[in-house]
Write a structure and sequence with these properties.
By secondary structure, the protein is an alpha/beta fold. It has nine helices and seven strands. The longest helix has 18 residues. Helices cover about 35% and strands about 15% of the residues. A three-stranded parallel β-sheet has the order 5-6-7, sandwiched between helices. Strands 1-2 form a two-stranded antiparallel ribbon.
């Protein structure tokens, strides 16, 4: 929820009995008051821009908890409680942050930087693609390959592979190579991605898949290369 960002800038948190709370997410559920006595003032000549690839707000059904909580290990039975804890916290310290698009990025870190360091959120993927002059480099490409550990519906919310695919000119095919493909993906093609491949070769423990990931990636890439080469026959 961004409470660690606030603590790093000198904010202190207390429960209803006046005890200092540690700067962790669980403290949001016990928080009764916030002290700004020792907070660090960001110099006027310092401007912070957050490169974020998701547009999730801090709270609500599309917010940080409901969107990213499960993949970060939070049990769904806790979603409503944690979401309310984040909302209560920001209503106390910075209610306007609750309205910022993208404040839910990084589990609320983006919101914390906006609230406590006067940061602004900009498109991460567009900023990076502009810096490398992507549009010019991809103009005459034969193929664009994107990748992600797990391609799922959250990827469609603005993550890097989708951002690259969207910026790729019509007529240049885009394929995705991923650790795994989620069941909630729309039917291909979507967002300029023509085909998507999982590198997993067999059912095995996660530990073995991680250990063999580089080998599986090579095998998948080689198979795709052979398919592409068949077009020349």
């Amino acid at each position: 929820g961004g409470i660690g960002i606030a603590a790093g800038l000198g904010y202190q948190f207390y429960d209803k009995d006046g005890n200092v709370l540690p700067a962790c997410g669980q403290s949001l559920l016990k928080l009764a008051s916030v002290s700004t006595e020792n907070r660090y003032e960001i110099p006027e000549n310092v401007q912070i821009r957050i490169l974020a690839d998701v547009v999730s707000p801090l709270c609500g059904p599309q917010g940080a908890t409901y969107t990213f909580g499960k993949q970060k290990g939070l049990h769904p039975t806790m979603f409503a409680v944690v979401d309310q804890g984040i909302q209560d916290f920001y209503e106390k310290v910075s209610p306007e942050t609750l309205e910022i698009k993208g404040a839910g990025a990084g589990g609320g870190i983006a919101g914390g930087l906006c609230a406590f360091a006067q940061a602004n959120i900009v498109s991460g993927i567009d900023t990076c693609l502009n810096l490398i002059n992507f549009d010019k480099k991809v103009l005459h490409a034969d193929l664009v390959v994107v990748g992600e550990g797990r391609l799922d519906c959250q990827s469609l919310a603005g993550k890097a592979p989708i951002g690259v695919a969207k910026r790729t000119p019509v007529g240049v095919p885009v394929i995705a190579i991923c650790g795994s493909l989620a069941e909630d993906l729309p039917s291909l093609p979507f967002e300029n991605i023509q085909a998507a491949f999982s590198i997993l070769e067999k059912s095995e423990p996660l530990e073995d898949s991680l250990k063999n990931a580089s080998l599986y990636l090579e095998h998948t890439a080689a198979n795709i290369g052979h398919l592409l080469n068949m077009r020349k026959i």
